[in-house]
Amino acid sequence: MSGPAAETTVYYSFIESGYLTTTDWDEYIDKNVDEYIKDLQLLIQQPSISAQNIGLQDCANIVKNMMHKDGLPAELHDI
Question: How far apart are the first and last CA of the chain?
Fold first, then answer.
C-alpha cells in the first residue's frame, strides 16, 4: 500500500479493530488523556531506586496492575 492511506494508517495489534487511522488514534488519546496522566502521576510518585533496592517490588506491582486494568497480561518474576 502506498500514498496517503498508507501514511495515515497505523497498525496496533492490541486494538480490537486491528488498525486505527492517525485521526482515530488522536481521538482515542484525547478521550483517555485523564487516565494516562493519572497513571503517569502514580508512577512518578512511586520511589524506585534499583541501586539501593528501594521500591522496586511496589513499582513492579503498580505497572502490573495498570496492565491488568487495561486488559493486558502481566505477571511478576523473581530475578
Answer: 44
Query: And the C-alpha cell for 18?
Result: 486491528
Secondary structure of the chain in HEC code, one letter for each residue: CCCHHHHHEEECCCCCCCEEEHHHHHHHHHHHHHHHHHHHHHHHHCCCEHHHCECHHHHHHHHHHHHHHCCCCCCCCCC
Amino acid (1-letter code) at residue 69? K
Between CA 31 and CA 41, with CA 35 as vertex, the angle to 5 degrees is 140
Residue 52 cell numbers, joined: 539501593
In tens, the pLDDT along 13-56 reads 445 556 667 788 888 889 989 999 999 999 999 998 989 989 99
Residue 10 has phi, psi (to 5 degrees) of -120, 130
pTM above 0.85, yes or no: no
